[in-house]
Amino acid sequence: MANPTPSNFLPQAELERRLLQWASSSYVPRYPFFDGSLTPSASSSPASSIIGDTTQIHGDMNRWFNSTVELAAADCGVAEEQYADVAIYFLRGDLQEVMRVRREVYLKHAYDSDKVPSGRRFWVWKDFKEDLKRVVVGAAKIITSSAGSNMASDAIDLLMRRAHPYFASSVTLGLIIGGTAVLLPALGIMTWDRMKAAQQQRVGATSV
Questions:
Q1: What is the number of structural domains in the chain?
Q2: What's the domain range around 138?
Q3: Is residue 85 exposed (0-12), middle (13-18) or buried (19+ Cβ within 10 Å)?
């Protein structure tokens, strides 16, 4: 049986309208967007320390969850069932697209405790946070490992992994559902297809 939609569940257009208004206001305490950069920068985004160790990455992301996502949700009257949607709104670049794909698959495959499909309309906030951390850490490891690689026999794959580390990370990672990583072949296929499309768009843009 499908889970009922919470009575205060906001339509996507209304959710985005409130978040845009919030992000544009003068009292936002910090830069709210996680732009997905994998190089150090002066930004206060958690991505600025993405090359750091896993503990530091987790700490930065926890602060982003608390001081940006949950604060924005509270100020905008958004229920916890939509916290993951708030977080995805504040993502940028490939990481936003990756988490959209993972959300789509999560909603199709999330289970109740008895392993019956839940028909869930939302991504459980705890599951989302754990899943996003794994994708980000995985991407950082890809950047670190590929930097010293000279695998000429698989140069195309290596270039795609370097250009789109979040996609490459998502291809091999199972989704966190109920605190457990669940391997779903459809997720890898969908993510790989999106990664190839992104690469083709980038090639097309540079050839114009």
A1: 1
A2: 12-207
A3: buried
